[in-house]
Amino acid sequence: MIKKQIEEGRKDFLNILRRLIKRDFSGNAGIAIKNSAYQFSTGIVAKAGSLIFTIILARILLPELFGLYTLALSTILFFAAFSDLGIGDTLVRFVSRELGKGNISKAMSYSKYLIKIKIFVTAVVSLILILLSKIIAENYYHKPIYLALLAGGLYIFIAGFVVILQSILQAHNIFKPIFYRELLFQSARLIIIPMLILFAIKNSLSDQNIIFLIIISLDVAYLLIVGLFYLFLRGNIFKLDNSKQKLSKRDKKRVNRFILIISFTILSGIFFGYMDVVILGYFVSSEYIGYYQGAFSFISAIVPLITFSSALLPIFSRLQKRKTQDFLKKAVKILSIISILCFLFLFLASKYLVLLLFGAAYYNSINILRIFSLLLLTIPVITIYSTYFTSSGRPGIVSMLLAISTTINLTLIYLFISYLIKYNPLYAVYGTAIATVISRYLFMFMLMIYKRKN
Questions:
Q1: How confident is the model at residue 385 (pLDDT cuts 50, 70, 90)?
Q2: pTM, full prediction
Q3: Contacts with 416 (C-beta within 8 Å, 6 or more apart), sequence order
Q4: Which residue has the higher pLDDT, 288 or 32?
Q5: Which of 211-225, 231-245, 256-270 shows the lowest per-residue confidence on average (mean pLDDT)?
Q6: Rounded distance between C-alpha atoms, residue 436 and residue 425, angstroms
Q7: What SS3 string covers the chain?
Q8: According to the model, what pLDDT value does residue 395 have?
Q9: Residue 364: band (very low, low, confident or very high) from pLDDT cuts 50, 70, 90
Q10: C-alpha span between 64 and 279 (Å, rounded)
Q11: Which has the closest alpha carbon to 74: 368, 300, 400?
C-alpha cells in the first residue's frame, strides 16, 4: 500500500514538473500548479528572508535583546490577528466564486463591502493596542517595550491594508505581484534595519529605543507595499467595475455570517499561534524567549515548502464536491512526502543549524528545535483539511476543533510552565514547546476523524 502511494506520488510530481517546464497551466489543475508555483516562490522568499533577517537580528542583538524584540512583535501580531477575523479568507471565497460564474460586478461589490469592514475593524484594534501599550509593557511584562507597542498600533493599521489588497489578488488568481511584493519587502528590511540597529548600538541608544526603531522601520516598509499594491490594483482590477451594483441584504447577511463563523477559527488560531510567547513573557526573562524564537524560526522558514493553502482556496471554492475529494487526497499525499523529508532533516541537523547560523549564544535552542520539528509532520493534513472545510462553506468545523485543541494547548502551557519554572526557566520553555506539539497533533487527528465520519 505504501509502495503504491509512493509510486502515485512520484507520477503526480513528474506530471507537475512536466506542466511547469512546458508552461501548461490549462484547467483547474493548471491554475493550481501555476498559483502554487508563485506561492511556493513567495513563501521561499518570505521565509528565507525572514530566517536571514532573524539570524542577523539574533546575532546582533544577542538573546536578551532579541527576546525583547520577539516579545514586542508577538504581542503586536497577537493584536493584528484580531483585525483580520477571517475577512481576507471571506473575500477570497466570495469574490473567487463570483468570478468563477463570470459575475465581475458582484465580485467587485463583495470586495468593496469587505474592504469597508476591514478598515473599520483594523482601526479599532490599532487604537486599542495604542491605548493599552503602557499597561501591557509595564504592568504585565515588566519589560521595556512600551514604545515598540506604540509603533505596533501603526503597524497593525498599515499591515491590514496589505492583507486585504493581497486577498483581492488571490481571489482573482493573480499571484505574481504578491511574489514581487515579498521580494521587495524582504530586500528592504534586510538592508535597512540591520544598518539602523548597528547605528543605534554605536550611539548607545537604550534597549527600548532600539526595539522601537525596528518596529517603526517595518511600518515604513509595509507602507511602501500598500502603495505599490494599490497602484497595481487600480490599473488592473478596480477598473473592471463600471457598474454601481450593491449587495443585497441577503448577500451581506451571508457574508457577515461567514465572517462570524470563521472568526472563531481565527481567534483560536491567535491563541494557538501567539499565546505561548505572551505567557512565557510573563514568567521568564527575555533571553529565554530569544532561545524559544530562535528555534521556532526554523519551523516558520520550512512551512512554505509544504503549504499551498492560499493557492488552493480559490480552486477548492470552484470545484464540484466529487472532484474536490480527489483533489484533496492528492494534495495531502504529495505534501506528506515533503513534510517527512523536512522533519528528518531538521531533527537530525538541529545542533549544526543552530550553532552555525545563530551562534553558541543560542545553544539552548537546540533541544527546543528538535521538539518543534515534530510539528512539520502535522502541517500538510492541517493545512489542506482546514482549507477544504473553509472553501466548502464549513469553517465552523475548523473553528470548533481548533477551539478545543487551543483550550488544551493553553491549559498544558500554563500547567507545564507553573510546574517546571521552579526547577529551571529553560525547562519551562521545553514544556511550552511540548504543549504546542501535543495540541497540534490533537487538532490534526480531530480533523482527520471528522472528515472520515462525515
A1: confident
A2: 0.77
A3: 428, 431, 432, 434, 435
A4: 288
A5: 231-245
A6: 17
A7: CHHHHHHHHHHHHHHHHHHHHHCCCCHHHHHHHHHHHHHHHHHHHHHHHHHHHHHHHHHHHHHHHHHHHHHHHHHHHHHHHHCCCCHHHHHHHHHHHHHHCCCHHHHHHHHHHHHHHHHHHHHHHHHHHHHHHHHHHHHHHCCCCHHHHHHHHHHHHHHHHHHHHHHHHHHCCCCHHHHHHHHHHHHHHHHHHHHHHHHHHHCCCCHHHHHHHHHHHHHHHHHHHHHHHHHHHHHHCHHHCCCCCCCCHHHHHHHHHHHHHHHHHHHHHHHHHHHHHHHHHHHCCHHHHHHHHHHHHHHHHHHHHHCCHHHHHHHHHHCCHHHHHHHHHHHHHHHHHHHHHHHHHHHHHHHHHHHHHCCHHHCCHHHHHHHHHHHHHCHHHHHHHHHHHHHCCCHHHHHHHHHHHHHHHHHHHHHHHHHHCCCCHHHHHHHHHHHHHHHHHHHHHHHHHHHHHC
A8: 65
A9: very high
A10: 17
A11: 300
Higher pLDDT among residues 15 and 355, named by residue:
355
pLDDT tens per residue across span 264-284: 667 766 766 778 888 998 999
Domains of the chain by residue range: 2-453
Q: Nearest to residue 36, comparing CAs of 162, 184, 178, 166?
A: 178
Amino acid at residue number 437: V
**Plot region of 359 (φ>0 → left; ψ -120 to 50 → alpha; else → beta):** left
Question: Residue 48 corresponds to which amino acid?
Answer: A
pLDDT > 90 in the chain, percent:
26
> What confidence score (pLDDT) does residue 419 get?
92
pLDDT higher than 50, residue 314: no
- The 10 Å CB-count burial string (b at 16+, else e) for 235-246 is eebeeebeeeee
Q: What does the block give as the cell for 45?
A: 522568499
